[in-house]
Structure of Inhibitor of apoptosis-promoting Bax1 family protein:
Amino acid sequence: MQGYQADPYAAPYQAPYQEARPSRPLTIDDVVTKTGITLAVLAASAVVSYFLVVSNLALAMPLTLIGALGGLGLVLVATFGRKQDSPAIVLSYAVLEGLFLGALSFVFAHFSVSNANAGVLIGEAVMGTFGVFFGMLVVYKTGAIRVTPKFTRMVVAALFGVLALMLGNFVLAMFGVGGGAGLGLRSGGPLAIIFSLVCIGIAAFSFLIDFDAADQMVRAGAPEKAAWGIALGLTVTLVWLYIEILRLLSYLQND
């Protein structure tokens, strides 16, 4: 009986050549799974950060800065370096944003809110965030609002407008304008409440664009790893939405 004939030109102990398997096409289940993993990592990091600050208040500022700046840096790397599909970058972003949100939640709940129960405030912000998320998912699935190129341009323009206002408000506040409140967009007054509501609305409409992008990538047969990029986009929007809802609730509690 003739046995297996090894390649006489192969190097010793070299594994036989195997063709690389093509990547499996992206499915909605992939998007749900990767997004769930990303949010689970973020939540675990946020809980750790929160209790670190509870045990040592001096950690609040370092954790907030490290998380915010590190997360922003990774988003920029993912966007401009075309690494949105990298699990390492997406999960690292989740860890850093968790550190940021945990410390920030403690600060808002314990210092920005008068006589408020910290756990209740944070719980309301979390429920509000996912309420908006699932509400917009229903809106998208029912076709109540269709994502068209014009709609996308309007949301993106509104997003850049809000970011410009945030930056302008920050710069003016740094120079002591308005008694250090800048334009008053974060002062807790009526204008701050309106601004937070606008930001919540833009974040909500951004979900529709994220959902549509996921659907288009599934229909186009994108590779499975593209789910990580979609998870990153959804997580960025969820983080922003949570912060704005937390701000709004703190303003209303103070009133």
